[in-house]
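Sequence design from tokenized structure. All designs in this work follow the same two-part layout: the structure record, then the generated sequence. An example of the structure record is given first.
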């Protein structure tokens, strides 16, 4: 981290003339171990923050100008803006995320009294589904809190980040990504009930195993994917079910409830979508119990079942993610593997026994390259803390 800190400070100096008074911040990326597409259905999720993420160097200016620079999009150079130029849905490059958070702070009555200079560097693969956008949102919130003295908790940072993505970037995301990043805790996953934001930290003791992320390198954008479509299918299914059972969200249903009342959902496709939301929520509850009991094999089996449901009932996997998961299942020493994130590209997450990590990367990598014609990337990751000033 100290090496990256020195690199980003020196780049800030190069881009903005000097680094006098600049501060360096970090916010993690996240991976969701199980509980996919449940967060906007009032269900449970089980994500953790990672030790890879987004670094930001920032300082206040004496005027109302905003100057942005990203080491991940150097071809754009310095992007100039001002505190007068917040247009929801109007920004067409990466600055839409930090600007969205500044706008959201303003909407919540916290106005920046001057502009700032901001340089970003992320070591989360772009479009990987490891939440680079939510990482930037939470990072920006932490920067504004520190530089402008706004009184907000880490949980507030998560809610402001989600609000900015919904209202400024017009992506109808749930709360999971921002919450996992803002509330991250080393060596723990967060067991979060998205219906009321009650949560507990669950220690992840992977004795003799590692978390391996396989990045499909298929780029995707949330807003232009089928994400909003799946969300509205679930909302329609919920309103149909509400005619026969008193519930506020699909997350309130047990499997038995769903089987009893599913005929209220007129369309078979919507029925499949709702089934995934209900069953995935129950899998998440079971997975956390299995983990508490030290039963990693059961946890892995539930991860595998989650992928099958996302493939068959929710239909958000695609050939890339299916290849990564299905090839992983063939490798001895793989405890569990599934797609993670919104789907349609992005990553899979696998729990792999230490002695099998090398053969896992080799055999899944070779099979993926042969089938897709381009390579996947693999990251052996650790679980880290939330946002902070370095």
């Amino acid at each position: 981290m100290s090496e990256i800190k020195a690199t980003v400070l020196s780049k800030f100096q190069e881009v903005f003339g000097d680094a006098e008074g600049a501060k360096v911040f970090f916010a993690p990326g996240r991976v969701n171990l199980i509980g996919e597409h449940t967060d906007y259905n009032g269900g449970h999720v089980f994500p953790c923050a990672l030790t890879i993420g987004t670094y930001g160097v920032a300082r206040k200016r004496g005027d109302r100008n905003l100057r942005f620079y990203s080491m991940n999009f150097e071809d754009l150079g310095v992007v100039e803006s001002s505190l007068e130029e917040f247009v929801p849905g109007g920004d067409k490059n990466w600055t839409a995320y930090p600007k969205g958070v500044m706008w959201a702070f303003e909407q919540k009555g916290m106005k920046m009294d001057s502009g700032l200079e901001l340089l970003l560097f992320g070591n989360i693969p772009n479009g990987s589904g490891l939440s680079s956008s939510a990482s930037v949102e939470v990072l920006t919130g932490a920067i504004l809190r520190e530089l402008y003295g706004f009184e907000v908790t880490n949980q507030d940072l998560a809610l402001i980040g989600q609000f900015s993505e919904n209202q400024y970037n017009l992506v109808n995301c749930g709360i999971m990504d921002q919450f996992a990043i803002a509330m991250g805790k080393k060596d723990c996953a967060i067991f979060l009930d998205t219906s009321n934001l009650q949560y507990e930290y669950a220690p992840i003791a992977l004795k003799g195993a590692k978390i391996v992320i396989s990045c499909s390198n298929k780029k995707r954008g949330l807003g232009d994917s089928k994400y909003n479509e799946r969300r509205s299918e679930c909302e329609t299914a919920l309103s149909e079910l509400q005619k026969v059972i008193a519930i506020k969200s699909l997350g309130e249903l047990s499997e038995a409830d769903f089987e009893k009342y599913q005929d209220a959902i007129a369309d078979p496709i919507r029925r499949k979508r709702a089934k995934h939301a209900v069953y995935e929520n129950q899998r998440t509850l079971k997975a956390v119990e299995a983990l508490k009991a030290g039963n990693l094999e059961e946890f892995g089996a539930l991860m595998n079942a989650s992928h099958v449901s996302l493939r068959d009932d929710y239909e958000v996997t695609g050939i890339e993610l299916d290849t990564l998961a299905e090839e992983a299942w063939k490798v001895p020493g793989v405890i569990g593997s599934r797609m993670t994130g919104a789907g349609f590209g992005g990553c899979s997450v696998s729990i792999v026994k230490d002695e099998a990590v090398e053969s896992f990367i080799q055999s899944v990598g070779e099979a993926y390259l042969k089938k897709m014609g381009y390579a996947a990337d693999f990251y052996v990751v650790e679980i880290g803390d939330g946002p902070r000033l370095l």
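The first strand starts at residue 23 and ends at 32. We note this feature because it recurs in several other targets discussed in the main text.
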